[in-house]
């Protein structure tokens, strides 16, 4: 029996494909994250923008409050860790999901 809010396998599209083009914004891919989230230590960031370019869910956006830095969007971050792997300065680290409130936007000042 399917849990509330989940679809049974019979209702999923073939191959779990996404049949409606342009619908990515409707999916809360942040729900897929489990136990940890990426946190940017700005004191180590060189503003190269690789996290912005490499994130498959476009979770990083230029920070209008701090030129050259990036903010992070927990709604879409699925926790794949690509940003952590690609950051040339190891400025992005895992933090325990329980700490998200403490760290706010998950970008240090
Ligand atoms: S990839 Fe790392 S160094 Fe580059 S902008 Fe992102 S956090 Fe900063
Ligand atoms: S963990 Fe993955 S989805 Fe989340 S911000 Fe980094 S690259 Fe994007």
Report on the architecture of this protein.
- The chain is α+β, with helices and mostly antiparallel strands.
- It is built from three helices and four strands; from the N terminus they run E-H-E-E-H-E-H.
- The protein has a domain of 75 residues: Alpha-Beta Plaits (2-Layer Sandwich).
- 17% of the residues are buried.
- The site of one iron/sulfur cluster (SF4) has 12 residues, from helix 2.
Which terms summarize this structure?
109 residues, alpha+beta, Alpha-Beta Plaits, two-stranded antiparallel sheet, 15% strand, elongated, binds iron/sulfur cluster
Order of helices and strands: EHEEHEH
Tally of helical runs:
3
| Biggest sheet descriptor | 2 strands, antiparallel
CATH top level of the domain at 29-103 is Alpha Beta
- Which CATH architecture of the domain at 29-103? 2-Layer Sandwich
The share of residues in helices is: 10-25%
Distance from N terminus to C terminus (CA atoms, Å) equals: 46 Å
Rg (C-alpha, Å): 16 Å
Low-confidence stretches: none
Indicate the mean pLDDT: 87
Q: If you consult CATH, what is the topology of the domain at 29-103?
A: Alpha-Beta Plaits
- Please report which band the strand proportion falls in: under 5%, 5-15%, 15-25%, 25-35%, 35-45% or over 45%: 5-15%
Small-molecule components bound = iron/sulfur cluster
The neighbouring-strand order within the major sheet is: 1-4
């Amino acid at each position: 029996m399917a849990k509330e809010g989940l679809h049974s396998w019979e209702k999923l599209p073939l191959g779990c494909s996404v049949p409606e083009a342009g619908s990515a914004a409707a999916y809360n891919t942040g729900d897929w994250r489990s136990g940890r989230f990426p946190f940017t230590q700005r004191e180590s960031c060189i503003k190269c923008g690789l996290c912005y370019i490499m994130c498959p869910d476009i979770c990083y956006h230029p920070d209008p409050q701090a030129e050259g830095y990036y903010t992070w969007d927990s709604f879409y971050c699925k926790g794949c860790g690509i940003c952590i792997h690609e950051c040339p300065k190891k400025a992005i680290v895992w933090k325990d999901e329980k700490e998200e409130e403490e760290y706010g936007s998950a970008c240090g000042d």
